[in-house]
Recover the amino acids of this structure.
C-alpha cells in the first residue's frame, strides 16, 4: 500500500459516484479520512438496497483504489461556521 502526504484538496469530492478498480463495487462517497501515515481512505455507500429494503453496509477503500464515475449526488450548500448571535432569554419576573 503506497502512502503519500496530502498537500492539497482531496482527489475525490464528497458525493461523487466512484467504482473500486479491483472489485467493481460502486457507490457514493459519504466520508473521507486522512491518516497520520499519509493514507487517504474514502467510505462508500452503495445506492442499492438489500432485498428486504434495508440499507447495505458501507465499505472503505484507499484513494488509489477508486475511480470516479460520471454522476454522483449534488450536496446542498451548508452555512459556514462562525460567530452566532448572542443568546436571548425572557426577562425575569418582577416581584410585587
Amino acid at each position: 500500500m503506497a502512502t503519500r502526504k496530502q498537500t492539497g484538496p482531496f482527489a475525490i469530492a464528497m458525493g461523487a459516484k466512484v467504482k473500486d478498480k479491483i472489485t467493481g463495487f460502486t457507490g457514493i462517497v459519504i466520508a473521507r479520512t486522512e491518516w497520520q501515515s499519509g493514507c487517504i481512505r474514502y467510505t462508500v455507500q452503495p445506492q442499492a438496497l438489500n432485498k428486504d429494503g434495508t440499507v447495505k453496509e458501507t465499505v472503505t477503500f484507499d484513494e488509489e483504489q477508486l475511480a470516479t464515475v460520471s454522476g454522483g449526488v449534488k450536496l446542498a450548500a451548508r452555512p459556514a461556521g462562525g460567530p452566532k448571535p448572542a443568546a436571548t432569554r425572557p426577562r425575569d419576573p418582577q416581584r410585587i
